[in-house]
Design brief:
Elements (H helix, E strand, L loop, with lengths): L19 E4 L1 E2 L20 E2 L2 H14 L5 E5 L8 H14 L5 E6 L9 H9 L2 E9 L3 H6 L6 H13 L3 E8 L7 H15 L3 E6 L7 H9 L10 H14 L5 E5 L8 E5 L3 H12 L16
Parallel strand pairs: 1-4, 4-5, 5-6, 6-7, 7-8, 8-9
Antiparallel strand pairs: 2-3, 9-10
Length: 300
Amino acid sequence: MYPLEYIEPVFRPPSEWKSLILQVTNGCSWNNCSFCEMYTAENKKFKPKKVALIEEEIIKVVDSGLPVGRVFLADGDAMMLPFKRLKEILELIKQYFPQVTRVASYCLPRNVSNKTVEQLAELKALGLSLLYVGCESGDDEVLQLIDKGETYQSSLIALNKIKQAGIKSSVMILNGLGGPELSKQHAVNSAKLMNEAQPDYLSTLVVSFPLGQERFAKNFTDRQYQPYRLLSQQELFIEMATLLSSLELEKTIFRSDHASNYLVLKGILGKDKEKLVNTVKMALANSTEIPLRQEWQRGL
């Protein structure tokens, strides 16, 4: 039996499937992004968890004998905690799980605005080695439309600060976020942001709305844009080709293999850039050599 009880739903990056999920906060302190449906449940109001309770849960895991090699700090906004609180949590992990090789967390760019590079480096020394940064877009117009509360510049400052502290960053960009009207500038400016930041990892997934897109689309009509619609498969490929062609990365590990993607892409940018761009072009040409996910395979 699993030793911990969570306030559900709980989310984690796909690569954290083997990690101990340590829920140090509940929900997201921002929770205004119009595309996000992760923390809308009534019981997901943002609240930090007391350190004493976190220690009790860690002891439960130790007593259970569950092997722990990695830890993921949940929920969606653990990095908004003050430096002192994060330090206490990481010291507990180090004390009870000395074998842990990686501690990771989601991170909004604003989460590091009140933390110095020196403080982040101290957290790195205590085991925090990877931050998943949801930039979503590098285009200020798109970011404003989705109520992200971030800008190109705030994202860049955060990514540079994380890099200076020696912590790895894994950035997420959402394909289709600007609809047809803003697709090109979304791709071009997202690539520009990545080129300046040079993250360690870059992933893309296709924006989708399992609960309906009314809330998201309202901003487009309220601000006198064309009515929002999801991009077609061909339009998504065009946007991806624009993004990849505009990227000038040195050694970033690139993944576009989330269940939402029609086309699975994996490689290292830049050495695999030409191959990846050609794969997208072949998909655009409806080549039978390129396997695509069917709609039923994209269930989220």
